[in-house]
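dumping this here so i dont lose it
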């Protein structure tokens, strides 16, 4: 590892180790982020909302193969609770509800796009 990246090593002292491994350390923050996006359909929802500014649940059902209404609703609620998407209910009959990324959801997308690029590069490198 070159000297410019030594700050990324896990600290060895007990006091320093908490900065990485403690309850408020890097590992805890990344784990919290991964929990927000874990779920079979959450990434698909986030990427669809990233490509289209706003979508209704019926559009998401059509665009994401094999997702059930129940699972879509569950994942949408979890993403909303985590502050990654915003749900707008227009209070109309028939019901009209739209979903869009929040600012926090938008801020997460470069990380997900970088993960996608890493996966593509890794796949090419291992072939």
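and the seq i came up w/
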């Amino acid at each position: 590892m070159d000297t410019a990246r030594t700050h990324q090593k896990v600290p060895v002292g007990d006091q320093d180790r908490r900065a990485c491994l403690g309850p408020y350390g890097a590992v805890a923050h990344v784990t919290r982020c991964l929990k927000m996006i874990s779920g079979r359909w959450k990434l698909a929802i986030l990427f669809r909302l990233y490509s289209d500014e706003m979508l209704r649940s019926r559009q998401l059902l059509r665009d994401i193969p094999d997702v059930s209404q129940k699972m879509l609703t569950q994942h949408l609620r979890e993403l909303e609770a985590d502050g990654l998407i915003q749900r707008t209910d227009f209070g109309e009959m028939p019901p009209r509800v739209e979903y869009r990324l929040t600012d926090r959801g938008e801020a997460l997308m470069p990380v997900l796009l970088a993960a996608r690029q890493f996966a593509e590069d890794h796949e090419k490198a291992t072939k």
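DSSP finds six helices and three strands in the chain.
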